[in-house]
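FAQ: What does the model actually see?

It sees only this:
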Amino acid sequence: MGLFFDRGPLSLRVSAHSSGSFVSTISAVSPEADTRTKWRFQVDASGSYQLRQGMMIFGEFINLSNTPLRAYVGSRQNRGGGGDDPSYEFYKPWGMVGVKIER
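And it is asked to produce this:
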C-alpha cells in the first residue's frame, strides 16, 4: 500500500508493505527442522525536489518502522523451551540523500 504526492517540482512517496510467514529453509531430514520466517510489516519513504532543469535533490528512507526479521525452526508447539526465536535480526532504519544532475 502506498501514498504519493506529485505536484510541480515536488514528489513524495510513503509505502507500507508486509510479507507473510513462509518456509525459508527446507530440511532434508525432517519437516520439523524447516526454518520458517515470520510475518513482517515495513514502512519506507522517498522524495525528490527538482531545483531547476536537470538538477534535483532526493532522499530515500528504508525500514522506518524498524521491523525485525524473525525466524524459527520447526513448529511452534515443538520448539521446546523459552520460545525464543533463533533468528531475531534488526536492520535499523537507514536512508540516503543526494543530488542528481543531468546534462
